[in-house]
Amino acid sequence: MPRLGIIAGGGALPPLLVEAAKASGRDPFVVCIEGAADAALFRGVSNVVAPVAKVGRIVEALKGAACRDLVLAGKLQRPDFRSLVPDLRGLRLLPRLLGAKGDDAILRVVIEDLESEGFKVVGVDDVLADLLAPKGALGRFAPNAQAEADIARGVVVLRALGELDVGQGVTVQDGIVLGIEAAEGTDALLARSKLLAKPGQGGVLVKLKKAGQERRADLPAIGTETVQGVAAAGLAGIAIEAGGSLILDRNAVSRAADEAGLFVVGIAP
Asked: What SS3 state is found at 172?
């Protein structure tokens, strides 16, 4: 089975992919993006650390490790392109990145460039299908009628924003949009929503992939930290796209939601 290259950002997802690759008999090789991925998490696994702008170094490392299949995973803040110090290959790629409007457009440029070198970029769910959110309630709790209405409102908002390649998450309470996830990420969205939510009136976090989104990178994801953030914001639960979003450690998320008295539900909008 061909060696799997993992271009890793931060968070729990890249280590999960490493374990899944090893369990399936594949030998993973990890490129830890400097300032995002924690290389200490990959001790005992072949890895290299590289700045995001050193595109030539990343490609050479992957080729030197005889990788054919690649997966992009983990949290990575959009860089300030003005502060980057790219190598020659990164410099050639920079105009296309600067011309890309939105995160999905940037990821498409990156994937196209990697595939021009003969790599095959695969999705996280191709390596670890168990991470895909199922349809229906995950734990003991389910949304009530008001939460269902707020979920529907969130879906409408995200569908409209997705056409503009903006945001995968929105918080809604009593039909009012509290916040929209942009470049700051879900944690910051929930922190802002905490300041706006009315106590004791429920509210939901809705996460969907964007319309026409490149599935091989940046699918919406939740984990136990998301559940904790929703609880801290005073919201009633989370709705995520079944088959189009990821749950990092489903059992742990279900337990955390039950303990917090929140629902987590997979929806098919």
From this structure: strand
**Counts of helices then strands in the chain (DSSP H, E):** 9, 13
Residues whose CB is less than 8 angstroms from the CB of residue 195 and which lie 6 or more positions away in sequence, other chains included: none
Which CATH number covers residue 106? 3.40.50.20
Q: How far is CA 188 from the centre of its chain?
A: 14
Q: What pLDDT sits at residue 153?
A: 97
Q: Going edge to edge, which strands form the sheet with 176-180?
A: 136-137, 263-267, 237-241, 204-207, 169-173, 176-180
Q: What is the DSSP letter of 198?
A: P
Q: Are strands 169-173 and 176-180 parallel, antiparallel or unpaired?
A: antiparallel
pLDDT band at 81 (very low <50, low <70, confident <90, very high): low
Residue in the block written with tokens 């992939």: 209
Give 189's DSSP letter.
H
Tokens of 83: 């502060």
Lowest mean pLDDT among 59-63, 83-87, 200-204: 83-87
What residues make up the domain containing 180? 132-267
